[in-house]
Amino acid sequence: MLVVERTLDRETRDLFQMQLVATDCGVDPLSVSADLIVTVTDVNDNCPAFSSDSPHSVTIPGDSRKNTVVTQVRATDPDLGPNGDIVYSLSPKVSEQVKTLFSLNSLTGSISLTRDLESDNSEELVLKVLASGHHCPPADTQVTISVLPKANQELTIKIGFIAEHQNQTMVLQENQHPTALAVLELEGDSIFKDLFLAIEGEVPFTLSPQNGKYLLSTSKPLDYEMDREHHISVVARVRSAEGSVIVPSRRVVTVLVADINDNAPYFVQPHYELQVEENNQPGMSLLQISASDLDSGENGMVTYRLENYNPTMFSIDSVTGQLSLLVPLDREQQNVHRLTVFARDSGSPPLESMATVSIHVRDQNDNPPVFLTPHFIFFIPENVPTLSQVGKVEVKDPDKGENGTTELYVVNSSAPFVVDNTQGMLRTTRNLDRETEDRYELYLLASDHGQTVALTSTARVTIFVEDINDNQPKVILPGSNSSCLTVSPGTLAGATVGKIYAIDEDSGLNSEITYSATAPELLQNRSPFQIDSRSGNITLSQQLLHTDLGMHHLFIVVRDGGKPVPLYTTVWMNLLVNDSTEPCHLDRVPTWTGTLNLVQTPSKEPICDVETARFSKVILLIGLGMMLVSTCLFVATVICCLKQRSRSLKMNKRAYTEANEIPLRLKDKYYSD
């Protein structure tokens, strides 16, 4: 950013040349430079002022002729162009006599006679001249014109031209160094002595005496833009004690200044900025660019051209400077267009200047929101807290401001989800249960904030609810802990005598069920039953013996495959080894008094009924006592069976009945009082 540190004054300095250097911060810094030229443009900050020798005092002969240039006043305004234009006028306070006798050129400041003088007497006339500029109070000066009595003898001023001339008028190109124009000589007899020639007024010319003659030359380069013609009033003067007095002899020399191309065109303003709404109509006119040239003729004829631009987008009329737009603009492709306009005159060689145009493209709501993908897929575990994050939904709108600000909405509002528009996050509105619904399909609506019409788009969202191990296995078979199955003593080893069937509403590993059985016989490796851990089938592990007659209680633990801790439930499998065909039924539910190596506590109540813990200690003591008695009876029974093996079938049947009654009586050891 280039900053102006103090006030600039074009009249003091109108051009600054500098060099910009850009250096990086590397260990070995690299740099690049560019020349920068700042041209100070003019503003109307100065008013006209007359030269320091004002007021003027002029003496003229009493026989001066009409249109004779008496003198020329000069005011200056250091501003440029129209800001420096000066208009001369007579003050309203000037007498009517003066107004009828003299005329003032409003552009050059020349004061001329409007009629011939025929004055035999001396008189003094006072003129007050005003110099006016744009938006400035007029400056004033006073010109005193002394009229001498007309002389009886006449002197003439003869001129010999050196410079190019036509019809007694010389033509000189501007900006030339001091140049000799003509040789002037005073001819005729006069009663006056010590005559000499002099120039009236402030003009850029000098008279140099040379061998009784006078060389008329320019004192400085002429400027066509300041004065296009000069009227040099040469008069004869006579030296006196009081100074010098004009004698009745005068010659006006006219010099026309020829223009050269010494002024480049200048823009009314060096930089233009405008705003255009995108999607405009082709051929739209943008603005009129104007440049002026102080030169004349072809030197002042200006043409325009563009540089560093896309010719298919912009055009400028070379004569009028009308800048037009050829195609619709798209802010999303380019929001600012910077053009360089050159104004060139037709001089030889031509001169040109530059102005810049910045075109800012205003946004229209012409782009709907765009989702990152038309189909979002998210996964979320079940049972997460309300307002948990499901996933981020990304949507973009290339428009600007409110036109590019978007909001998201869930279209099917019955789904338990809502969009957090501050983060673009999809969140839950309630607890999710995979076992109730494991997948949600919904649509999101994205809408921008367009003032006239809001643009929208939709995206599909699929949400998969991932399972967590939140359900215990449910035992279907047996139907209750008091269920009982009868097993024939003649059942062969390996036969399936029962089945445990359970289900788990979870999925995957969380629903994979394994079965394990625990019973006093199993602990001592004496149980004839075993359970398949995968299928839940209960089979005979060996051929039934008469000692196996009676009730067998298997405490079944059903586990799922949840990680890191599985869930489980328990059930009693009651098997009665007996030839009876009558339905088996338990009066009481067995109670397990052992210890289970289960590290996980079910989150729900067990499916099967169990006794309360307040009787567990009593049951344990009773169970231990009954187990001791049972062991003794078992040993006695085995001895009796061996002794009577050789008896007849009738005796065997009787023995079988007796042996069967003993376990039935012993079954009470599995019940609590």
UniProtKB/TrEMBL annotation:
GO biological process: anatomical structure morphogenesis; homophilic cell adhesion via plasma membrane adhesion molecules
Transmembrane segments: 618-642
Pfam family for this entry, one: Cadherin
Membrane topology: Single-pass type I membrane protein
PANTHER family cross-referenced by the UniProt entry: CADHERIN 96CB, ISOFORM D-RELATED, CADHERIN-87A
Recorded superkingdom: Eukaryota
Primary location class: membrane
Keywords: Calcium, Cell adhesion, Cell membrane, Glycoprotein, Membrane, Repeat, Signal, Transmembrane, Transmembrane helix
Domain Cadherin, residue spans: 1-50, 52-267, 268-371, 372-475, 486-592
Places the protein is found: Cell membrane
GO molecular function, one term: calcium ion binding
CDD domains: Cadherin_repeat (cd11304)
Name of the protein: Protocadherin 20-like
PROSITE patterns named among the record's database cross-references: CADHERIN_1, CADHERIN_2
Gene Ontology cellular component annotations, sorted alphabetically: plasma membrane
